[in-house]
Amino acid sequence: MSKNERGREKRPFLFAAHCYCIFAPMKRVYPKGFYKSSAPAEAKSLKSSVIIPLGWVIVMWGVHLWSHFTNSVFSKYGIYPRTLSGLKGVLFSPFIHGDWSHLINNTYPMLFLGTGLFMFYRRAAYQVLLFGTVLTGLWVWAGARESFHIGASGVVYVLAAFVFFSGVFTRNKRMMGLSLITVFIYGSMIWGVFPLKDGVSWESHLFGGIAGLLLAFIYRQEGPVKKKYSWDYDGDYSPIPEEIWNPDFDGSDQKNENGNPEQSTVYVYSYKPGQTVEKKDEKGKNKE
Asked: 170: Cβ–Cβ under 8 A, 6 or more apart, which residues?
């Protein structure tokens, strides 16, 4: 069996694995009947999360189809290190691919990891995708071999590294589960950062992974975080107000804007039919 035939046999498994990578972390324990009311919201979230990755993949396929049917060569628009003309590849190279295998291998992870990014890290997704693409491209332009570097694999490494290390940094169980799934499916990607195969831009893989790690650390507070309970806090701080857990608390340690202790005010309400309500402070004076 040839290498291509083995690859075609693995594609259904990879497709199923990618689907599990997206939907498994969404599983929660809810009361009976909750899914009926939450299903529209989940579907809307999924639809909105897939728009940008799907659009990215459509552009990739459009460019390659155009190149295939018009016999055009777009590799000249890739990144050529340390040349002024090669800088245009920072923006264009992620949409250019050398052959169908190159395109398909980048389509699956780009679509599913991108959807996971926009679903679970919505507030930081645009920044991660933009900064990751630009950082990887600039680093490749500055430090890679003198050759045209094309393909979205650098961006794929950004997404894979970001998703994995974000789960590690946040210590959120769902995100750590997504990280483990990412390692299970893309664990072999680690070999792509080494110069083991001719014709492969291992520099894009390496710099993409570094950019993903850096962005995961910068945006570690943006995604889902691990829930904190009162016993998780160190020192004397507690998120529970002291007047709840301390019966002897009288508020005497509270201070106003000038740094002076605030004088607590006690409101005494007395009501009789036909009379107005009187408000008195702790000194017994009526308050308007």
From this structure: 220, 223, 224, 225, 226
- Is the distance from CB of 267 to CB of 280 less than 8 angstroms? yes
Minimal CA–CA distance to 129: which of 47, 212, 59?
Answer: 212
CA angle 169, 174, 180 (to 5 degrees): 70
Q: Which residues contact 12 (CB under 8 A, 6 or more apart)?
A: none
Residue 154 and residue 208 in contact, taking contact as beta carbons nearer than 8 Å: yes
Helices (H), 171-241: 173-186, 202-218
Cα distance between residue 205 and residue 210, in whole Å: 9
- For 267-284, the pLDDT digits (tens) are 555 555 555 545 555 455
Label residue 243 exposed, middle or buried (CB < 10 Å: 0-12, 13-18, 19+).
Answer: exposed
- As a whole-number percent, the residues of the chain with pLDDT over 90 amount to 43
Angle between helices 34-70 and 122-143 (to 10 degrees): 30
Domain assignments of the chain as residue spans, ordered by start: 34-218
User: Is the predicted pLDDT of residue 171 greater than 60, yes or no?
Assistant: yes
Both tokens assigned to 274: 């036909």
Pair of tokens at residue 148? 């045209």
Q: How many residues does the chain have?
A: 288
Higher pLDDT, 236 or 76: 76
pTM given for the model: 0.67
Which CATH class, in words, describes the domain spanning 34-218? Answer: mainly alpha
Q: Check: CB of residue 246 under 8 Å from CB of residue 193.
A: no
pLDDT at residue 28 above 50?
A: no
